Amino acid sequence: xxxxxxxxxxxxxxxxxxxxxxxxxxxxxxxxxxxxxxxxxxxxxxxxxxxxxxxxxxxxxxxxxxxxxxxxxxxxxxxxxxxxxxxxxxxxxxxxxxxxxxxxxxxxxxxxxxxxxxxxxxxxxxxxxxxxxxxxxxxxxxxxxxxxxxxxxxxxxxxxxxxxxxxxxxxxxxxxxxxxxxxxxxxxxxxxxxxxxxxxxx
Length: 202
Fold this sequence. Notes:
28% strand, alpha+beta, single chain, 3-stranded mixed beta sheet, elongated
């Protein structure tokens, strides 16, 4: 969804930038209105997106999982939510890098979900921790302490590594499109706000 929206916004901002040389006549009024509409839409979109990623995904029907790193090295933690719906795909989320003796809290929407996997990496995708965690009571929050480097299932962890790799690739692609969109948005706003130079008579 995010990928499609960023590409659509890139196309619209590109069209808006191409229309910027039109500065006279009736057509200029319509093109300026269109350019302002696209620029405003871009500002609203990124405001919503930054707000969404800046606040915890908390809801009343979510399961709170506190993850504590008791290992001597920082761990890059990913969570994979497994749905009990056979037609649904697993959902990957990046919990973040947890330093030693620190913790993070992740919120899971537990509808159609009976288990989740936690994966800890060191360095460039070196898997050092994998645990399969069941959800027996969806109204009771959970506490996970990482005390040693374990891999509870090599078969499942191999599947998890592939899912995390695909998630990281998608995230990098989204980041590239977001950067391009922000650049075009900045150029469009700068051109729209630029004042006409004063004519000097000699």
